[in-house]
Design brief:
By secondary structure, the protein is an alpha+beta fold. Helices cover 31% and strands 26% of the residues. The radius of gyration is 20 Å and the shape is globular. The relative contact order is 0.13.
């Protein structure tokens, strides 16, 4: 099977790594990729947002399957262009991707499907936002309606900050046409958060193992929201029935509702959940694998990945054998550049990658996010630069291996959290 992966972050590196280990994959390509992905796949310089160019590349390569990693190409309709070329693609259509592209649309789908979620208001003026914030009270939750690379959400106890974020979102054009300038103000959900992915072909839904990520930049869940500073799986504190409960109350009803609307959702449906005192509540949907949760989920998946993605792309998930999982734990620690999640400094040399590769393979490895090659040197090229991933018999061993690997990496001005999975490993 020839596979083309679209994207260039740590999520795509994790996908490419898993696909490269699949004996059914005979050729692996990635566009545009990064310095790390280049070690396992052939890279191509194609604009990931250009559906026609992606479809042309897939046709030229004779790809049997295209996997669209990031949300922006999906919302731009890249999967539609590939399907129109007659090539199976893992990723939802432009219309179905609005589950992530518009939080207001997702709320409407959840309401129709009876999916439990936070009460909310869609606001298009500062006055509406102020009234909604007053109705819910602190802590205030304000979300940009459109795509914001994981940084469009503010959760704060400061009303001025909440109103300022709402005003800033209304002044941007990140929301999709027809909803431009709107924000979603919703009630705060207490309780731990869980990320649960599911592979679907538009009818059958196959959940993966749950993970937990860490959105705040600093230890103790302090600092601004980021795209994610680390993750771990499994969740030893979670109810054993969690996955089945979410499948029946959230994932399957959502997929059924999308099909009923005539916009079936196939690909990866990501449910961001809060386990509240009132039960499971959906915080958000994403239309693709999450980053950095993908890194730990795929580290534990033992079923070859290509067949799973192909079954979703071709409507044959109902015939897929049950997924097999390792009993090992996995932990990912994100190494970010100076000033992230603000404007990151780029172009700094990265050292120690060879040391990590020789350290404890295959139990610890580096997945590249924002990197590029400058001659013989790998340098930083984004905010989140590396995802250091490790497995172990339990979370304590996986954490130790991950942080031992992080300590080998040199990147001037870099930052990382030191408490990823610490509470879970300690049984707290």
């Amino acid at each position: 099977m020839k596979v083309l992966v679209i994207g260039g972050g740590a999520r795509e590196h994790a996908l490419c790594r898993s696909l490269s280990l699949d004996p059914d994959v005979t050729a692996l390509h990635c566009a545009p990729g990064n310095a790390g992905i280049a070690e396992v796949a052939e890279l191509h310089k194609v604009d990931a947002l250009d559906g026609a160019a992606v479809a042309a590349l897939a046709t030229e390569l004779g790809a049997d399957l295209v996997v669209v990693g990031p949300e922006a190409p999906l919302v731009a309709g890249v999967a539609d262009a590939v399907r129109a070329a007659g090539i199976p693609v893992f990723g939802p259509s432009k219309e179905a991707a609005q589950l992530e592209g518009s939080k207001a649309f997702a709320k409407d789908v959840m309401a129709a499907a009876g999916v439990p979620t936070a009460r909310s208001y869609v606001c298009t003026t500062p006055e509406e936002a102020a009234a909604a914030l007053n109705a819910f009270g602190a802590p205030y939750v304000v979300k940009d309606d459109g795509l914001a690379a994981g940084k469009g959400v503010v959760v704060t106890g400061d009303l001025d900050d909440a109103e300022a974020h709402a005003a800033a979102c209304m002044g941007t054009a990140s929301a999709p046409a027809g909803r431009r300038g709107s924000v979603v103000v919703e009630e705060y959900l207490d309780g731990p958060e869980v990320s649960l992915f599911a592979v679907t072909d538009g009818e059958t839904v196959v959940p993966l193992q749950p993970a937990q990520d860490f959105k705040r930049a600093l230890n103790g869940d302090e600092g601004p929201n980021t795209g994610g500073m680390g993750a771990y799986s499994p969740l030893p504190w979670a109810d054993p029935k969690l996955v089945d409960d979410v499948l029946h109350s959230v994932l399957q009803p959502t997929v059924d509702e999308m099909r009923r609307r005539g916009t079936p959702f196939s690909g990866l449906l990501y449910a961001g959940l809060a386990i509240t005192g009132r039960g499971i509540r959906v915080i958000e949907f994403n239309a693709r694998f999450g980053d950095p949760e993908t890194q730990v989920v795929l580290a534990r998946l033992r079923t070859p990945l290509a067949g799973v993605l192909m079954a979703a792309a071709t409507g044959t998930l109902a015939h897929l054998e049950p997924l097999r999982w390792s009993d090992d734990a996995a932990v990912t620690v994100v190494v970010a550049s100076h000033n992230y999640p603000g404007t990151p400094r780029t172009g700094d040399p990265i050292t120690g990658l060879d040391e990590v590769a020789a350290l404890d393979a295959p139990h610890a490895y580096v997945l590249h996010a924002g990197t590029r090659r400058d001659g013989d040197t790998v340098v930083s090229a984004g905010g989140r630069v590396l995802s250091v991933t490790a497995t172990g018999a339990d979370l304590t061993e996986a954490r130790d291996r991950a942080y031992t690997a992080v300590a080998r990496i040199g990147l001037d001005g870099s930052q990382h959290r030191t408490d990823i999975a610490a509470k879970a490993a300690a049984g707290a």
